[in-house]
Amino acid sequence: MASLTVPAPPCLKRPLHVPHRHMFGPGPSNTPDRILQAGAKPVIGHMHPETFEIMNDIKSGIQYMFQTQNKVTFAVSGTGHTAMECAIFNAVEPGESVLSTVNGIWGERAADVFERIGATVNTIVAPPGGFFSLDEIEQALSKYRPALLFVTHGESSTGVLHPLDGLGPLCHKYDCLLLVDSVAAMGGAPLHMDKQGKIDILYTGSQKVLNVPPGSAPISFSERACQKIFNRKTKPVSFFLDLSWLANYWGCDDKPARVYHHTGPVTAFYSLREGLAMLAEEGLENSWKRHESVAEYFHAELESMGLKPFVKEKKARLPTVTTIVAPHGYDWKEITTYIMKTHNLEISGGLGPSVGLVLRVGLMGCNSTKANVDLVLTALKDALKHCHKSKV
Amino acid sequence: MASLTVPAPPCLKRPLHVPHRHMFGPGPSNTPDRILQAGAKPVIGHMHPETFEIMNDIKSGIQYMFQTQNKVTFAVSGTGHTAMECAIFNAVEPGESVLSTVNGIWGERAADVFERIGATVNTIVAPPGGFFSLDEIEQALSKYRPALLFVTHGESSTGVLHPLDGLGPLCHKYDCLLLVDSVAAMGGAPLHMDKQGKIDILYTGSQKVLNVPPGSAPISFSERACQKIFNRKTKPVSFFLDLSWLANYWGCDDKPARVYHHTGPVTAFYSLREGLAMLAEEGLENSWKRHESVAEYFHAELESMGLKPFVKEKKARLPTVTTIVAPHGYDWKEITTYIMKTHNLEISGGLGPSVGLVLRVGLMGCNSTKANVDLVLTALKDALKHCHKSKV
Predict the structure, then answer these.
(1) Measured between alpha carbons, how far is residue B84 from residues A18, B78, B120 in Å?
(2) Which residue, of A2, A153, A183, B76, is most buried by count of CB atoms within 10 Å of its CB?
């Protein structure tokens, strides 16, 4: 047997060190110990009956969080991006026309994925902080006749909560599926998947309002979406994300038994179940109201200290991720670095089209409290006092 | 605001219950408490410097485990299937010719993924328990002139350890990349990514010899593979698995800064780092030897109780997953069910082409001990005594 050419790395001799930190950026958010402990329970098999029961509980929890009766409801084994690709890979075939509404980074990324699988992609673009009226969307639907419309409910890069009312019926009038990304808003802002029209495909992530470590992503497909997907002419590009396999693994189809597809991340399922249980304990409407009132308090206090919310229209402000106009004369990067160093607290700058324009503060799930708002305000005031201000 | 139509599910009121169990199937394997506790450390940001340091440690650990100096070495945010798709999506363009060696389920699955992305797929097939000689592979390379060859190092469905010596030079003679799946063998059987030829793309999973919960998958790309990938004419179908983005997120390229790509599953990284640290503590060669000697003891004891190893050639037997010829006259399903129920111990039946033909016992990482072999033997003897035997 040949001898080793690469020796054991000395860096692995150091014990793992992870600091405690206030996670008030756009995500991941802080994870309560109860959820971390759930994720530290022993590994059992991805096909064991106890795992199937945990997966069934997760399905019920997601149906509650999404307010849907959709049978095909489950968690993707991955982060929000994986869920986005799961939705797009399954719902769209090469050559089909799709429409992506772009008012921040997520519409751009969806457009990128559509292109990669050979769809004909059209976009409508709003400036950072903006969103689309039903009229604007109808014009585009009528012009491009897409098979699918992509909308970001919670645009975490710009702090916009996109209105969803009326979108479902509009899409259906044009024989178009409605795909909604609610990674950053779900659980923190009202959404009724079935009553709103209905939304055909909806997904979120674990690491935002649910306060679960990143690594699983709830998703749901309407019957209309399934009709299209299960009658595709071509196979989706991914076996791992193929809905016919995933729906079976999650017991969402009518087959008598679940078949091995991939090795589900069982400990991620444990913590996801715990996060959903905590949401059910508080009650979805209570969570919505708490996020709303904490955000209102936050926005009022920001204005009273002379800072401006980036999103002008009050009802279009995300209650989970607040964007603040980058304070004039300051280097935003110096502010976030100072706050991290001095207050052990993460807030962040912009992302994609909002880089340089905003500061972003996420208060999601258990982080959404007035006490945490006060922590952020204290840190911001301190930063504005100590960071370098140009004389311009 | 509309009222809720889906009430909170009562099932989530029950506390999460997960049993302790001997995980002696083909994976996931048992996870030591040390690794579970590492994964329960607090969530910090996927772009925080402490996370980058953990990711750097993981890279070094994987380079050690794979015995490679490849710069582009990292962990995919997903299970082994995600790593398979990461390799295939990046390394192959639509219309290219590929060759998959099929001697169990993994070659079949790779062929499926190749087809999905529009490659021209050729296969050579060996019966379950078999493998391919260099001559057979050379014939196929010369006939099909593929851009890439797929080989399964540890065929967990049939218990075969595929010989790798000579494959690299052979592939390179035919200007073909060598892609090796070592999900089930890595860390438990000798492999030298660089010295063996070298292997161009290699991946494994976390939940086998590493004893880490499923959800991360080490992978490495040779410079030759990167040359091809970074000069593609088309974008890979997946943004999430696009190597140019992933290599940057993992600090494997020459760019000055890492750019946000996706939200890395940070707690999965913590536990992966811990698993790699434990492997480095034991030493790779010691781990190889331990798996080999435990497997030899196991196979000898099986024969002494009248059971037959499924793989005839000794040197082609996987030291991590042992396949046993399904005992004549018994229903294999009754045996595995009895052992689970009576001994709280998982062993499994076949998968894909080996269904009905074998029992499979995985003793991987910390599970690979003579004491655990004795547990399995006791359980098997008990099952053969108590399960129903036909008189045929």
Answers:
(1) 30, 10, 17
(2) A183
